[in-house]
């Protein structure tokens, strides 16, 4: 029987308990087996619960802690001085087996450093990776990693990212997930040494369905289920999607805000579009997962609203049910065995 | 007196003379001082001119050559076996002083290799860079480089990119162009060694208006006039803009194509939007420039239509008038002098 308890960093993100508390309550009603431990300042959490008319909930408990990590804190400082922070206590709960997953909208660098320190890496994994799902034009999704857990990677790490991404994607698919490497050309001769070495390793791996290189303009075309790249490139790429999407939304909003008949009509015709466009920023919409650890860690966007934070909790539930960390271990073992014999 | 003669690779791109010839004729009527040398297969070029009812034009000449370079040819093969290709002959015309600029929609790798071989690098420049202008939300433009002329770069090259970008941008501005480095965080502590080293060099350069790091989601926010990054990252970034923009356009088109009243109304309300959205793909719209050479080389997108190819010719005219190569040299000399004394 799985322990569907999720530890929530109630204090993280731009809005803290004002977002995390209502999101938890919504998630509890969506997932009947879910239990939530809200970690943070008890009085702030209680206040938000009261606003929602809740004084007690059978599947919700509070773990009081006074310390919180601000967004300006360096990872090294977080490790040294913030062991009692809401974020760190959440990770302790997973490390001790009281919870199966952590969801936090707090400081990304601190979350990565503390996660690695408290949960440890899975055997065979050298570096954790941040992964999120891009939407595709055909309403499927493509997992992309690393989105910035590392500022540089070697070919071995990229190979491990491919294994981790495959383990995450295979639950959504009937066939083997298609794995591609993000590159600056589709031809075999193009790209830097890193992608070329990784391509060689992936083509030789029998248990990975490697489909070749992919360029930035193909990201949403459903040509791969998993896209691997180093963390610097992945982070730039994700944020560029975000920036381009924002530019479009702003342009449309400009058109809609004019006092002309056209503006009036567009205001009535296009609102649903914005809801759809929101999903284009997966990090903001659904949260990103930190893979490669002995536990499930979901990073929600700092500016997440109630719906977005609830989606991040939903992602945690999804990964707990599918036991992603042990799936990664199993897959890695198969692939490594095959390479050794 | 400037020589406003532009050598056009008539055979390059997906459509060859069918696009390059009408685009040249349009450009000639827009720029009264422009002279064009169309380089390629004489009979194909003449046929397209006849279609336009032109048998002779005082400012248009044809340089016949039979060889063309396909998109699959490797740069090394282009260098060895395609010295008489339309692209190579265009570059010869610039090297010999008969033309001031080349515009080609042909094989990018071949164009870069042949340009470097035939035109040579400017003194003080180690690597050429591909640059293009992104539109900003406030209808200005931001020059970004390198977009893929190099698959990797060191801090010295990035510094030179900043100098070249500044020389290109200063014509549009009354004040010193603001230079930023593309990074995965805005904080000083973030980023890889490459960006950190380049940041240090740029902060110390008195003649560069360095404004710090920029993230992918800020590209269109008019926070910099010049953005520097290595060619791998820049190419992924540009193509990601293209892919995201395409996804949006496709979504809007879906909405517009429905047979409902809403679809009908949107078809009438939104057509101008697509024109505006097209400018979001600068590479496709305006061409990219190869900077750092002793001559002006404009790379048009392979799939450019007549308008886009004409825009690329316009960019060539713009750069000839502003004598970009000698401006780069001057600026580089000032910056280097300052560093040595």
N-to-C series of helices and strands of chain A? EHEHEHHEHEEHEHEEHHHHEEHH
Counted by DSSP, the helix tally of chain A is 13
CATH-defined topology of the largest domain in chain A: Isopropylmalate Dehydrogenase
- Main sheet record of chain A: 11 strands, mixed
Distance N to C terminus of chain A: 35 Å
What is the tally of beta strands of chain A? 11
Q: Which protein chains are joined by the largest interface, and how many residues does each one contribute?
A: A-B, 51 and 51 residues
Structural class of chain A: alpha/beta
**Average predicted confidence as pLDDT of chain A:** 89
Unreliable residue stretches of chain A: none
Question: Considering the protein shown, what is the CATH homologous superfamily of the largest domain in chain A?
Answer: Isopropylmalate Dehydrogenase
Cα radius of gyration of chain A in angstroms: 21 Å
In quaternary terms, these chains amount to homodimer
Widest beta sheet: strand line-up of chain A: 3-2-1-4-11-10-5-6-9-7-8
Secondary structure: helix percent of chain A: 40-55%
Strand residues, percent of chain A: 15-25%
Shape of chain A: globular
CATH class of the largest domain in chain A: Alpha Beta
Number of domains of chain A: 2
Describe the secondary structure blueprint for this structure:
The structure is a homodimer.
Chain A: E1 5-9, H1 17-30, E2 35-40, H2 42-51, E3 60-64, H3 75-81, H4 86-95, E4 101-104, H5 108-119, E5 129-135, E6 141-145, H6 155-169, E7 178-182, H7 193-204, E8 209-214, E9 226-228, H8 231-257, H9 261-269, H10 271-278, H11 282-286, E10 288-291, E11 296-299, H12 306-321, H13 324-340
Parallel strand pairs in A: 1-2, 1-4, 2-3, 4-11, 6-9, 7-8, 7-9
Antiparallel strand pairs in A: 5-6, 5-10, 10-11
